[in-house]
Amino acid sequence: MFLRNLKIIKSSPGKSSAAWTKKKSIPRVLYNWFLARLADMFPFAQQKQFFYRAMGIKIGKNVQILPQVFLDIFFPELITIEDNVVIGMDAFLSCHEFNPTEFRYGPITIKKNALIGARAFVLPGVVIGENSLVGAMTVVHSDVPANTLAFGSPMQFKKLSK
Predict the structure, then answer these.
(1) Is the Cβ–Cβ distance between 101 and 131 less than 8 Å?
(2) Which has the closest alpha carbon to 87: 48, 56, 31, 53?
(3) In terms of residue numbers, what domain contains 103?
(4) Which is it for the CA torsion 30, 76, 47, 54, positive or negative?
(5) What's the predicted TM-score (pTM) here?
(6) How far apart are CA 59 and CA 97, in angstroms?
(7) Has residue 1 been placed in a domain?
(8) Number of separate domains in the chain
(9) DSSP characters for 22-84?
(10) What is the structure's pLDDT at 17?
């Protein structure tokens, strides 16, 4: 299913980029931006996770978030990262998107033992299954089943052997 579990706010043409203010306050978004910048300055996982959790992101145990990762500052509370996950450098997890006449947002869930490759782009409303791998520079626009490699553009799947 394409982009499941999304909420949509309709807007007049060209005004969708302002629609997020109906759901979030500007000071809160600025606060989240500040925390995200602080998190990126620290090299150690525990220090980074302190700031990400303060933003509202749910993070499990043994999670590695590499440098320059963008975790949504508008809706960080919609991101859930389970245990033993690695998120590669420059990956982008966005719980929101703007279209010409609507603003969409939805949760992102990364299940246990998943790996997100460098510069991968995870769109809103996506679940990445347990033991799954997302290749570098992959745009994840739909759910990734458990024990699956997702790669390429357009995204393709290959079942991983146990």
Answers:
(1) no
(2) 48
(3) 7-159
(4) positive
(5) 0.90
(6) 23
(7) no
(8) 1
(9) GTS-HHHHHHHHHHHHHHHH--SHHHHHHHHHHHT-EE-SS-EE-TT-EE-SSSGGGEEE-TT
(10) 67
- Reduced to 3 states (helix: H, G, I; strand: E, B; else coil), residue 20 is helix
Which of these, 47, 44, 138, 61, lies nearest to 93 by C-alpha position?
A: 138
Whether 90 maps to a domain, the answer reads yes
Residues marked active site are found at: 96
Structure tokens at 79: 């991101």
Please provide the size of the chain in residues.
162
2 within a domain of the structure (yes/no)? no
What are the Cα distances from residue 16, in Å, to 73, 97, 99, 117?
A: 17, 9, 6, 30
User: What would the pLDDT profile of 53-104 be if each residue is shown by its tens digit?
Assistant: 999 999 999 999 999 999 999 999 999 999 999 999 999 999 998 877 888 8
Which CATH number characterizes residue 34's domain? Answer: 2.160.10.10
Token pair 């146990």 is at which residue? 162
CA distance 38 to 137: 25
Question: 66 in a domain, yes or no?
Answer: yes
Give the span between the Cα atoms of 161 and 72, in whole angstroms: 32
